[in-house]
Design goal:
By secondary structure, the chain is an alpha+beta fold. The protein has one domain. Helices cover 17% and strands 22% of the residues. It has 2 helices and 11 strands; from the N terminus they run αβββαββββββββ. Strands 1-2-7-8-10-11 form a 6-stranded antiparallel β-sheet, with no helix packed on it. The protein has a 3-stranded antiparallel β-sheet with strand order 4-5-6. Strands 3-9 form a two-stranded antiparallel sheet.
Length: 213
């Protein structure tokens, strides 16, 4: 594993636009939710569809609520699956570094900085031995993840997969990440709901994710 100090110079990219778009979507959803709770709308109240459920203390799970009905879809069997033990890594036991915003195009965005700092404090190491994954909903069927190296504080941007749509599954002692994990109907990650997309398995290489095929 390469723990050399990374270069922090990064240029703004589409991720910048996505971050601001995410904030705009969330603000609009909050306004819509408040409106729906007003007295004249009590009979037409709709739950916010973009609730992001985090259970990192137990498994390391980011589940995105969806509007599909599993009873209307077939259950398919993966031809090949992968386990977290297949990609096991040792856990870092040293002092965790704080997130380093040097060269980060979002460093001037207080909301972003607070979001990353709070996520690191609450989630601690929850992925691939020495990383913190922080999840954020970006609208219906959309969730982004941010990754921080807790050895040197590096914040990774422009990583894939950046849109899990149907959630993520990961472990603190494994470099395997499963995208669209909410489609699975079993704990062995073998059987899933036949929808327009399917679960995908990714391996973290220290800089980005690569699809396992």
């Amino acid at each position: 594993m390469n723990l050399a100090t990374p270069q922090h110079t990064q240029t703004p990219s589409i991720k910048t636009a996505m971050w601001h778009f995410t904030k705009l979507v969330i603000n609009l959803l909050m306004l819509a939710f408040l409106f729906s709770c007003s007295p004249e709308n009590d009979t037409d109240h709709v739950e916010n569809p973009d609730t992001l459920v985090k259970d990192v203390a137990k498994k390391g799970t980011l589940k995105q609520d969806s509007n599909f009905n599993s009873s209307d879809n077939k259950i398919l069997q993966l031809e090949k699956t992968f386990t977290f033990d297949d990609y096991k890594v040792p856990l870092f036991n040293g002092k965790m570094a704080e997130p380093d915003f040097t060269g980060n195009p979002f460093a001037s965005d207080k909301e972003y900085v607070d979001f990353i700092k709070t996520g690191c404090k609450e989630n601690k190491i929850n992925f691939a031995g020495h990383y913190t994954i922080i999840g954020r909903s970006c609208g219906a069927e959309c969730s982004h993840i941010f990754i921080v190296d807790r050895i040197n504080g590096r914040i990774f941007i422009d990583i894939k997969p950046d849109d899990g749509r149907y959630g993520y599954e990961y472990r603190k002692d494994s470099k395997l990440l499963i995208a669209n994990s909410s489609l699975f109907v079993d704990d062995q990650f073998e059987r899933y709901i036949d929808y327009w997309c399917k679960p995908e398995f990714y391996q973290w290489n220290g800089k980005d994710f690569s699809l396992i095929e």
